[in-house]
Amino acid sequence: MESLSNILSTDFIYGWQVWLDDWFLVFALALFVIELLRYTIKKKMSWNLLGDSVANYATLAMFIVIVALIAGVYAGVFFYVYDNFRLVELPLTGWTILACIVLADLAYYWEHRFLHMNGFGWATHTVHHSSPHFNISVAYRHGPMDWFFPLFFYLPLALLGFNPVIIFLAEVIVQIYQTLLHTEAVKKLPKPIEAIFNTPSHHRVHHATNKQYLDKNYAGIFIIWDKMFGSFAEEKETVNYGVFPRINSVNPLKVFFSGYGKFIQRLWHAPSWSYRCKLFFKSPTWAWQQEQQEKKQ
Amino acid sequence: MSLFTSILTSIIIVLAVWFGVIYQPTPSYAKPIASSTTTEATENNAANESVLSQAKAISDKAKRSLKNQVNNTPVNNIAGVQQHMMISDVGKLWSQFDRNQSLHSKLKDYPSAIYVLYRNISKDFTNADITIGYSDLELKASMSITIVPNGNYQNVISGNELSAIQLETAWKKLDFNQNVVAVIERHQLNKSADVINVTMQVLYK
Ligand SMILES: [Zn+2]
Question: How far apart are CA B20 and CA A116, in angstroms?
Fold first, then answer.
């Protein structure tokens, strides 16, 4: 416990973050190969699955290009807020890092829930959900604006006095944990783990189109947030993955830009300005229901 | 839970965790008495921001009463170069120090450390009277010296490979609410005159 109180240097923490970020991608690729072998043995391997996986890594490549362009500004905003507006200065200790991970996880919950609750956020997050498959490559399926929304949810941590290097480390840790959940290979983990932590089972529910599973299990690391805030569902019925409307494509460009394409299309064809506003602020389910009704008439 | 209660609960969780980290067990070189007073202060008050400043005031008072009980001034007198200048320009004084052959020639043996002393620091921490030199005990002939203020110095940053940028950003770690009497850096050297460790310490009034 003593060691958690030791003061760490920002270089040390930053080094950890970079190390984790780089090596985890290699590790995840290895896991993905194992998953592919598993699908082959189970005779579930298909051209669509392979094409979808390639598309997933292609969206990652496009996302990395965007991140490379904005990373400096993104980090700059955190340092600016931290340097000028922080309320206190928290020491760089293990305890601070642990607390920051917990709070970053809570921020992740709200950011994720936000992305599902309005058309503008959903237009980028739908990319991640549009795969009909569920494996670790899906975790890397990113939308073009996936970097933008976290900014607003993690920035308050800088205001509270967490050094930006700690915030970035916490973001990476939550992200890495989340990535590992994207698998069908792990059925259910021991009860106490399923009770406290987010698990592949809980996250499969999040990716489902089954009615009882819609808008559930937003958690990053701790599933307790969902249980507390009433957005939890247990995996019982077999999950169907994907989104409505179906995307039916493994073309990386189409996958990457589908969300904003659809969003702009909806805005263009909107019957009124109030409808346009609602497209921004109302949930994507609302827009879908409106269109279904229109079709019936 | 409704959306509103969920958000409210989240805010309460954030505040609870935040207070937890603010009053986390402090490292061994920080003063234990001061931190226990701080905890008492928070227990007696509801969780709001004014408590923070109140608790801080109490802890500062405790710190002040402890002051000068331990005199750990790292060096008594420094002989070297001195100038009133921008703190960010300290590099210029370093090159002046490096070129000062008459000073280096007065060394008895290999120097054990180089000290950088900052006094009369401006309120906004931009300029100060800066001295860079050796401990006068390590010099043969007596020469003009700068007396280092005595007191209980606190560690700000320490490490074996601190860059100039790290030292500059370390200034941000100082407690702006207390009067800073002096800041001192100790650049420890080995026999081949490489810096093996740098420590920055502060003396508050
Ligand atoms: Zn989602």
Answer: 31
Domain count, chain B: 2
Looking at the structure, do residues B12 and B105 belong to the same domain, yes or no?
no
Sort residue A43 into left (φ over 0), alpha (ψ -120 to 50) or beta: left
Q: Which residues of A touch B26 (CB under 8 A)?
A: 5, 91
Size of the A and B interface in Cβ pairs below 8 Å: 59
Q: What is the C-alpha separation between B72 and B154, in angstroms, rounded?
A: 9
Q: Same domain for B65 and B101?
A: no
Q: Residue B108, class by beta-carbon neighbours within 10 Å (0-12 exposed, 13-18 middle, 19+ buried)?
A: exposed
The predicted complex's ipTM stands at: 0.87
Gap between the Cα atoms of A12 and B205, Å rounded: 32
Neighbour-count burial of B155, counting CB atoms closer than 10 A to its CB (0-12 exposed, 13-18 middle, 19+ buried): middle
Mean pLDDT of B153-169: 80
Please, what is the average pLDDT of chain A?
90
DSSP sequence for A8-31:
--HHHHHHHHHHHHHHHHHHHHHH
- Could B6 and A102 be called an inter-chain contact, meaning their C-beta atoms sit closer than 8 Å? no
Q: Which residues contact B99 (CB under 8 A, 6 or more apart)?
A: none
